[in-house]
């Protein structure tokens, strides 16, 4: 058996020489081969910075954001001293670098944290070349500025270019990152309002999408949010619009593009000539001419561009949700503009998803986290397998790969007339499709639509094909590959696939190596901002055990509406795509909404490695795992228990709200972690009515919680003479269509049912209402003679206008307090 394994190893080593054979050996500490030492010192400090029009406290590396570029040559031994001059602990992770486990830089998991005032020495042999980066792995410090680039030159020149330029993309907030996360946890829509990406009811109705909205609400979703956070600026190398005029016409420049954002994915486009993509995540790929390219958080792509004779290249990186753009200009002269990518249309996405019968709302928090329900979950949620749309969607992954089908379009059709308005290239209108598939047969009957991602106006390009129900969305911009033209349904997210990446050499593993299969459904709850895998956040799970010298194959099945760029520390994995044996190797893979991606890697290492979504706010909310070779823990980590890291993804966040109005005043306080929540509520009407309540509640799963506590209210209307205090227990449940249901009973055995709801009707205006009905059957209290029961109804309704993140104007009517208006303050 050992012999076979050894042989298998040799075969892999023989056919994969991307980093030389070292990749398939265990990483070893120390400068075993006496490679030349290349030393750096990084000093991390807190500094006032101004990145988006406001002086705020940031975290700098050697005084700047981003930190300096670390340059190495393959075959050097890196020694990096990281000095912490802040008053909080820190760490540095070397993203994409193959290195000994102890120096990977995840505090409390593999590496000790760097305490205030201390210096940590990282050291590792440089066994690879390419574009990488480093960043703090402590809490949200990367968002504050602790990140920088790594450029490793190969031993021998592999690519033809003259010079290079690092393009570090990032997102910037003027808020404290932890308060951003707190705001996400409290679940208000402010960031979407600020970005102009909220989808209030008036817009939904105006677009005829109320049915789709109901479909979302039924599944307890507000809408199709693409990004969570409002950023006042997106940056290239720390600036909003940097210029690089020093390059000369005709020079071939290798752009080393790194997405060092905390949570932003970008669509990149280039002005000037067509750029050549030469490398992804540090590793060279089959060069491909490509312009519009999606870059997920933590990915790197290298492009070679030629500086034009006249004009400067515009490089645009538009945040995926269209909320902003970072731009760089390379060269001299007039701007050679890059294509402006259309903002995504969230309402149209909702409509498409509703049509596709996606079942959303997989639990981010399960009732029994230890119970294995991965496969049930995968079967129940996601795309529903009925009807043609589903076939289309599936085909995107599997059947649609190798054969082709031409779609003939009559020249005299209305389609053709309309197509003249677009710049669509007819000759390339070919769709890949298996001839013998169900799809082929069903096509005529289907509502199949062509959809283009470059579509600048999502509404005006609907074209009806003659003689059928089919319609097409036609591009208004140049279609440079077949990949950009897809059927609606499958097309919606397939623009995010990696089929354009082809490895230079066969990356497949020998078939004799045992394979361990792992299914991870990516799950999330936007309202509570909990992110998890298989409905289990990091704090409720064990490590994922893998085996040395085996292949681990992980299927990532995204059951959320968000993209998740998943990063595995210390390894490169194959991202299985249409290139089969030549599937590319990456360290970060984006899993688009409702899509499935399979990765696999060979287990050559030891120790524990972090595997997580690289959207920092998702990682910090539970979407992370420890992948473990199940080898003994490093004795140097004894003082640094991994439980500390785990707890960071399950912290308590608290928030309050105060309404000060002409008829009443109300105070609310919530402190919440993943499972537990404490609430304090007090309302007082100037007409001498009051109610106060303190409850503890426990989430059994996303939508169901049990609670108990104390309630205080006046017994007689408009009088504080009799105050009654009762103990209460009950359940709270978020119903389909997003109603909060509260069913409870007090110690006087009076049952009560309550229902409440809030709806955003205009971009900044929400309406709200609640209704409570309490019955007293006289089981404890004495009822007036002749009465079988007494009841009490409390209701209110109102309207709220959001002035800012912290302030709203409100007006309401409450049947106890009357009508009035005032100010709401969130803090
Ligand atoms: Cu994520």
TrEMBL record:
Keywords: Copper, Metal-binding, Oxidoreductase. It comes from the Bacteria. GO terms for molecular function: copper ion binding; oxidoreductase activity. Residues 47-156, 164-312, 516-629 form the Plastocyanin-like domain. Pfam families: Cu-oxidase, Cu-oxidase_2, Cu-oxidase_3. This is CopA family copper-resistance protein. It comes from Gelidibacter algens.
């Amino acid at each position: 058996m050992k012999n076979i394994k050894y042989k298998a190893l040799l075969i892999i080593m023989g056919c994969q020489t991307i980093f030389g054979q070292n990749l398939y050996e265990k990483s070893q500490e120390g400068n075993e081969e006496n490679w030349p030492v290349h030393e750096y010192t990084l000093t991390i400090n807190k500094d006032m910075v101004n990145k988006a029009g406001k002086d705020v406290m940031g975290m700098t590396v050697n005084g700047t954001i981003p930190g300096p570029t670390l340059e190495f040559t393959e075959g050097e031994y890196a020694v990096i001293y990281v000095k912490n001059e802040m008053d909080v602990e820190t760490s540095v992770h070397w993203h994409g670098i193959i290195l000994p486990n102890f120096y990977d830089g995840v505090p409390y998991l593999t590496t000790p944290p760097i305490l205030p005032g201390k210096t940590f020495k990282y050291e590792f042999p440089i066994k690879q070349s390419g574009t990488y980066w480093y960043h703090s792995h402590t809490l949200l410090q990367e968002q504050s500025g602790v990140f920088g680039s790594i450029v490793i030159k190969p031993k021998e020149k592999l690519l033809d270019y003259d010079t290079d330029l690092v393009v570090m993309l990032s997102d910037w907030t003027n808020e404290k990152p932890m308060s951003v996360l707190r705001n996400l946890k409290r679940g208000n829509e402010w960031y979407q309002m600020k970005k102009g990406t909220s989808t209030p009811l008036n817009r939904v109705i105006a677009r005829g999408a109320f049915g789709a909205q109901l479909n979302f609400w039924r599944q307890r979703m507000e809408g199709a949010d693409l990004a969570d956070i409002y950023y006042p600026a997106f940056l290239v190398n720390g600036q909003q619009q940097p210029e690089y005029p020093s390059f000369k016409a005709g020079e071939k420049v290798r752009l080393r593009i790194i997405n060092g954002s905390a949570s932003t994915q970008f669509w990149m486009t280039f002005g000037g000539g067509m750029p050549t993509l030469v490398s992804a995540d540090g590793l060279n790929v089959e060069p491909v001419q490509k312009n519009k390219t999606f870059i997920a958080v933590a990915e790197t792509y290298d492009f070679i561009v030629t500086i034009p004779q006249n004009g400067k290249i515009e490089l645009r990186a538009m945040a995926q949700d269209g909320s902003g753009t970072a731009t760089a200009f390379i060269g001299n002269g007039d701007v050679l503009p890059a294509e402006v990518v259309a903002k995504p249309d969230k309402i149209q996405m909702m409509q498409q998803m509703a049509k596709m019968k996606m079942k959303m709302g997989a639990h981010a928090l399960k009732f029994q986290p230890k119970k294995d329900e991965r496969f049930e979950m995968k079967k129940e949620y996601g795309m529903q397998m009925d009807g043609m749309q589903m076939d289309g969607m599936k085909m995107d992954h599997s059947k649609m790969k190798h054969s082709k089908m031409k779609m003939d379009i009559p020249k005299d059709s209305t389609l053709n007339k309309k197509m003249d308005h677009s710049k669509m290239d007819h000759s390339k209108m070919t769709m890949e499709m298996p001839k013998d598939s169900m799809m082929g047969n069903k096509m005529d009957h289907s509502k199949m639509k062509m959809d283009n991602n470059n579509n600048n106006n999502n509404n005006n390009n609907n074209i009806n094909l003659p003689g059928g129900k089919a319609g097409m969305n036609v591009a208004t911009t140049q279609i440079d590959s077949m990949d950009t033209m897809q059927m609606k349904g499958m097309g919606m997210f397939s623009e995010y696939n990696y089929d354009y990446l082809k490895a230079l050499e066969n990356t497949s593993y020998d078939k004799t190596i045992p394979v361990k299969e792992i299914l991870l459904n990516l799950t999330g709850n936007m309202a509570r901002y909990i992110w998890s895998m298989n409905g289990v956040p990091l704090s409720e799970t064990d490590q994922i055990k893998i085996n040395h010298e085996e292949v681990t194959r992980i299927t990532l099945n995204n059951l959320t509406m968000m993209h998740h760029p998943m990063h595995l520390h210390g390894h490169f994995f194959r991202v299985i795509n249409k290139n089969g044996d030549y599937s590319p190797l990456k360290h970060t893979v984006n899993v688009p909404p409702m899509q499935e991606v399979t990765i696999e890697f060979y287990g050559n290492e030891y120790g524990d490695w972090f595997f997580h979504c690289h959207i920092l706010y998702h990682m910090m909310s539970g979407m992370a795992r420890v992948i473990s070779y199940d080898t003994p823990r490093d004795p140097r980590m004894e003082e640094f228990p991994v439980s500390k890291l785990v707890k960071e993804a399950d912290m308590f966040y608290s928030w309050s709200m105060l309404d000060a109005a002409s008829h009443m005043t109300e105070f609310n306080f919530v402190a919440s972690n993943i499972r537990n929540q404490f609430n304090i509520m007090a309302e007082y009407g100037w007409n001498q009515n009051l109610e106060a309540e303190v409850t503890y509640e426990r989430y059994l799963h996303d939508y169901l919680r049990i609670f108990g506590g104390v309630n205080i209210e006046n017994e007689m209307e408009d009088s504080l003479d009799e105050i009654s205090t009762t103990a209460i227990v009950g359940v709270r449940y978020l119903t389909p269509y997003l109603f909060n249901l509260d069913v409870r009973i007090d110690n006087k055995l009076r049952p009560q049912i309550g229902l409440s709801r809030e709806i955003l009707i205009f971009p900044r205006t929400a309406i709200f209402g609640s209704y409570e009905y309490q019955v007293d059957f006289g089981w404890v209290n004495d009822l007036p003679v002749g009465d079988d029961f007494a009841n009490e109804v409390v209701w209110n309704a109102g309207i709220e206008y959001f002035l800012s993140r912290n302030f709203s104007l409100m007006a309401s009517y409450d049947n106890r307090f009357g009508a009035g208006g005032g100010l709401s303050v969130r803090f």
